[in-house]
Amino acid sequence: MWMEKIAISKFKATCLAVLEQVRKTGKPVRVTRFGQPMADIVPPSPPERPSDWFGAMAASTKITGDLVVASGELEDWEVEGPGK
């Protein structure tokens, strides 16, 4: 695979621009020193996404009680009717 080459001295002077170019184009760049490869700048791989979102947060919650049944005795609750 052909890859653009850049001398390490030029890379040092234009590092941020080279990184932005790789991000935008997706094409890697090889950094060389005295003509010898030193590093390859490659675009990041796409982030891993769960194949199905259902259940993705299952391990992040904790059930601490019954959500349907009122806590305490029913007599302890004060209920106001409509219009009060």
Give the topology, please.
Layout: E1 4-7, H1 8-13, H2 15-25, E2 29-33, E3 36-41
Parallel strand pairs: 1-2
Antiparallel strand pairs: 2-3
How is this structure best described in words?
The chain has a domain at 4-41: YefM-like fold (3-Layer(aba) Sandwich). The chain has 84 residues and is α+β, with helices and mostly antiparallel strands. The protein is rod-shaped and about 85 Å long. The chain has helices spanning 8-13, 15-25; strands spanning 4-7, 29-33, 36-41. The protein is built from 2 helices and 3 strands. A hairpin with a 2-residue loop joins strand 2 and strand 3 (36-41).
Structure characteristics:
YefM-like fold, alpha+beta, 2 helices, 84 residues
Biggest β-sheet description: 3 strands, mixed
Q: What would you report as the Rg, rounded to the nearest angstrom? A: 30 Å
pLDDT under 50 segments (min length 5)? none
Structural class: alpha+beta
Strand order of the largest sheet: 1-2-3
Residue share in β-strands: 15-25%
Helix content: 10-25%
Q: Outline, from the CA principal axes?
A: rod-shaped
Overall mean pLDDT stands at 82
Q: For the record, what CATH class of one domain applies?
A: Alpha Beta
Number of helices: 2
Number of strands: 3
The first-to-last residue Cα distance is 78 Å
Task: Give the H and E element order.
Answer: EHHEE
What is the CATH T-level topology of one domain?
A: YefM-like fold
Instruction: Based on the coordinates given, report the CATH architecture of one domain.
Output: 3-Layer(aba) Sandwich
